[in-house]
């Protein structure tokens, strides 16, 4: 009979474990709910050089340094939470995070839902062409030419919105790298992406490319918070901390450390 | 060739630090799932009116929707409706949802396994004066579980691999650490290969354990 009792024992242990788990989680919910002085900052931990793990496995990067500095200046304790990007906004909405530091671009749709801090990174859509051509300077100059963009990206929307009469041939790509190759070969006349990304492509790929004309527009990245009274005060505190980082040049220093350029200044004036 | 063997080895070692999370979520979910799943399987075998309909709905939903959706709905969706649920941590939530998910599979396996035991066994149990419940516990279930063990092993393997989704909830498990490591040096192939090898190794261990359990419970029985 001995072996016959084993399944029963397993069931009992498992049910016991299950109930312990269940009650222990209930316990927590009654105690650890008060909004503390801790700010929980969510990030993917996999977006170099904004947020990534260094050789020792420590979280580091531009966004991490910015938040450490904000913590110092506001007196709040900063807790970094790493999660897959796909989960970050869900965690923000269910208040498991206070904010997200993952280069979140401010858009009208997001502004309706979230309270944003002041921007801390500016970037813009930029055209790129082969380095020996001078005919690509702005959206107007794309008419009658072929331009490569990532499928479903902001950049595709920008061009389609401008190109009401379908005078530009838009070619959509799944990934950036293929399109840059095609610009260099001459298969397409230009490509559009964000200025920062393109600058590093030019620096690192060795392809004969150049930034064509000035940035097309300006986009701003900031930190989203849930829109409620409590957060309004917190966001004001954080804004003045970021302001002071601009004033004494700290934020520029952090930018230079990771990018060798200042990504915190406006692109268009 | 662009493959860096040293990075693979280094990643294998470094990734082990995330193993406790993956294993504890997987083991807890399996144990709790076994408890509830076997119980639900038995209840469903008896086809209690009303209750059976509810259980059927439960099993159907949790087998019929992706684990990813279940994690999202529970961890992000429910707290917006019931704020008190918002304080459940990523670990507890992962274990809870994966337990409920695996219990659905285990319940079906158990029910099918009980059905595979000859109905005469039940008659025999009742005829010697055992109650219906005693007959289930001492006569039918032990024979059924022997049949079910291979499937339980499969379910456990599924759970372990399901834990790869928990990085979405902010749990820095094996997959999550792998993603973060790969993002640093762009050695996606080496690092994901290392991640895969570790999952494979866990699966091999589960397979061996299962083999042992199968032969243990087949004692005294002619194949």
TrEMBL record, chain A:
Domain named Solute-binding protein family 3/N-terminal: residues: 38-262
UniProt superkingdom: Bacteria
InterPro entries: Solute-binding_3/MltF_N
UniProt keyword list: Signal
SMART domains associated with the record: PBPb (SM00062)
Pfam families assigned: SBP_bac_3
Record-linked SUPFAM superfamilies: Periplasmic binding protein-like II
Protein name: Putative amino-acid transport system substrate-binding protein
Native organism: Acetoanaerobium noterae
Source lineage: Bacteria, Bacillati, Bacillota, Clostridia, Peptostreptococcales
């Amino acid at each position: 009979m001995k072996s016959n009792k084993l399944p029963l024992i397993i069931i009992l242990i498992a049910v016991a474990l299950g109930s312990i788990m269940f009650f222990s989680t209930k316990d927590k919910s009654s105690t650890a709910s008060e909004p503390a002085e801790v700010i929980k900052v969510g990030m993917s931990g996999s977006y170099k050089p904004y947020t990534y793990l260094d050789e020792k496995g420590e979280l580091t990067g531009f966004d991490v340094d910015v938040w450490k500095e904000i913590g110092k200046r506001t007196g709040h304790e900063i807790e970094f939470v790493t999660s897959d990007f796909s989960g970050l906004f869900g965690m923000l909405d269910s208040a498991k995070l206070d904010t997200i530091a993952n280069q979140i671009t401010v858009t009208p749709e997001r502004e309706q839902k979230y309270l944003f801090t002041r921007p801390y990174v500016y970037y813009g859509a930029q055209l790129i062409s082969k380095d020996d051509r001078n005919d690509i300077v702005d959206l107007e100059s794309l008419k009658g030419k072929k331009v490569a963009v990532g499928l479903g990206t902001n950049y595709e929307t920008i061009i389609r919105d401008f190109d009401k009469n379908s005078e530009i041939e838009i070619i959509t790509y799944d990934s950036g790298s293929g399109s840059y190759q095609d610009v260099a070969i001459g298969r397409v006349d230009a490509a559009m992406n964000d200025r920062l990304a393109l600058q590093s492509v030019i620096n690192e790929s060795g392809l004969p490319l150049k930034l064509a004309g000035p940035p097309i527009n300006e986009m701003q990245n900031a930190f989203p918070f849930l829109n409620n009274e409590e957060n309004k005060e917190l966001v004001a505190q954080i804004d003045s901390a970021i302001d002071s980082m601009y004033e004494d040049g700290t934020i520029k220093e952090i930018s230079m450390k990771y990018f060798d350029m200042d990504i915190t200044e406006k692109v268009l004036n | 060739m662009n493959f860096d063997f040293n990075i693979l080895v280094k990643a294998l070692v470094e990734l082990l630090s995330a193993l406790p999370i993956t294993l504890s979520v997987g083991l807890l979910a399996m144990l709790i799932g076994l408890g509830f799943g076997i119980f639900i399987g038995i209840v469903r075998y008896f086809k209690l009116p009303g209750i059976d309909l509810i259980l059927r709905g439960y099993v159907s939903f949790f087998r019929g929707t992706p684990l990813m959706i279940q994690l999202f709905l529970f961890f992000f969706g429910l707290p917006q409706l019931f704020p008190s649920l918002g304080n459940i941590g990523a670990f507890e939530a992962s274990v809870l949802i994966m337990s409920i998910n695996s219990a659905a599979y285990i319940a079906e396996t158990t029910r099918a396994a009980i059905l595979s035991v000859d109905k005469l066994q039940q008659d025999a149990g009742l005829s010697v004066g055992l109650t219906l419940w005693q007959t289930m516990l001492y006569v039918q279930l032990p024979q059924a579980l022997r049949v079910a063990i291979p499937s339980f092993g499969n379910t456990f393997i599924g759970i372990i691999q399901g834990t790869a989704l928990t990085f979405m909830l902010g749990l820095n498990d094996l997959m999550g650490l792998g993603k973060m490591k790969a993002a640093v040096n762009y050695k996606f192939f080496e690092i994901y290969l290392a991640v895969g090898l570790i999952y494979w190794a866990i699966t091999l261990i589960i397979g061996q354990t299962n083999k042992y359990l199968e032969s243990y419970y087949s004692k005294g029985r002619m194949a």
